[in-house]
Amino acid sequence: MNATEASFIMIYLLTLLLIATDMVPMSVAALIGALFTVWIGLNYGVFTYRDAVGFIDMNLLGLLIGTMIVMEVAYRSGLFRIIALYTIKVAGGDQRILFVIMCITSAAVSMFLSDSTALLLIAAAVTAISRVMGYDPVPYFVSASVMVNLGGTSTLIGSVSNMIIGLSAGLSFSDFIAYLSPCELALWILTTLTLYIFYKHRLKGKKEVPKYDPWEGIKDKRLLIWSAILLTVFLGLFTVHKDLGLPPEAVALGCGVLALAMGRVDPSEVFRSIDWETIFFLGGFFIIVGGLEKTDLLNGLAGWFMNMTGGGTFVLSTILLWISGLASMIISNIAVALTFTPIIKGLGVSNKIPMWSALVFGSNLGGAATPLSGVVTIMTLGALRREGFEVSLREFTKAGVLTTFTQLLFANLYILIRFGL
Amino acid sequence: MNGRSARDEIRRRLPRIMINITVAFLFWIIGQVGPLFVKGITIPGMNLPPPFNTVSSIVRLTATLIMILFLIKAVSDILFFTDISTEIFLKTLGIKEKKPLKRTARDVTYIILTLLLTMSASPVLSSIPHVGGYLNAILGFSAFGIFLILIYDIGRVTYGVLSEKTRKMADWIGNHTEEKKNRRGRNERDRS
After folding, report:
1. How far apart are CA A12 and CA A31, in angstroms?
2. What is the ipTM of this complex?
3. Can you give the residue ranges of every domain in chain A?
4. Which chain B residues are within 8 Å of A331, Cβ to Cβ?
């Protein structure tokens, strides 16, 4: 290993450490790393400036921004709020039914919304219900964060890490559903059951739900209908985009433009609510990983993986699933996906679908294991604190680790059976 | 600091450092000059192997040992100032963390940052005509200094954690032994 290779590894470690120690926001950490990568790469002749700019995957950023715009408009229309309020109404006052419905709704909503937005939505509903009914909000909040994290696993637009993996692997929206949704649905049931057993003793009692109209807060019904139509078109196009010869980012950006062109929302407000933190983090981290790729370090790692496992698909998938799962408990799942994507590309295996699936599961499922695993878990603790409830890190970690390990074990078994390994 | 203020500690330790270093320096001079006065005199009645059979070597050895003793005494006080200055330096860097793991992680982060900054700035400084070499050397030494301070802090934190764990283990063993002893005593009393 020469000095430049060592420096690229140090930059990678520096970025992860800056994020892990909360010294700077994650986007700034990635941008610092990117700055060092470009500076050292140019000064020591590893790559050119044009190469460095090329490291950023503009297709992914297009997909991300387009999806964010569509979902933001749908969120502003109140569509997701109505869905959440109706599902709670269905539950009546029974805590156990309410808990199960809340779990499933959290996962379903986060299939389309970003994790943090989905959690905000569910948190608002749970807060209102627990205040009115006098229920203990802790089981609902902790379970919501676990389920929101799980929800985004099976769709291409469910999480940023899925978008990264999907675009790199050439997996379409329907591929994701075909390969992963059976496991995802089973995981919803399994995780809900695990969480239910964990919190059973705190979910006793039934009270009458006060009457409320889910449509009460809707200001613009036309916007809501437009959003519902647009979301249907968006999902429909995603399902058939491969047959139409359209790349997913074109679908996302096209629908994003349509959402803005409806003229019923202020575009500047929509742009302000785009998650720029994630976009800048992605841009920076793309450059860091690009620098590592230029030095052939990741290819070397792929070769090492091949030698270590003997090229066996099941062993490779299992290792990838667990390493990425454990890594995303500590670091951002976007960083995990970006790091492992070139490694999988470099593996000399003909069928890489099991490995891609393992990475999707691993990078997504580890995100709610501990209170520090991701934004969602931190937000959950913050929301509970605002409500006057303190959840010990131990209690959260107990629930998170229990569900994460159950999910990873199940996903491992699913990969074995689904791909006939 | 046993309840003393930093100013008291400085008042107490600084003169001690000065005295210890002065005495150590005096003994170094004695070790250099003293042997000249007793040159060539062998120790009678003792069959010591050379060079330990001469008085001059005994004088030099004794002076050196005493010098080392005083230096050790000075070092324990110097370490106090090193701790304070390290703490001040690290605080200016933003490392105020009390949790050992997070503090060590921050130290490592700064070590990597220092190395990368040195590596990035080095080609630029080298290209400056005439003074480039000197600037590069200054950069290298500064980076090395920061590196040493951060490594020292990691060592200090690790030492703190280990000593705490060892103390807890010793307490546990002590309590366990005491309990066993008491139980045995009670059993014997019951039997009698």
Report:
1. 11
2. 0.70
3. 3-418
4. none
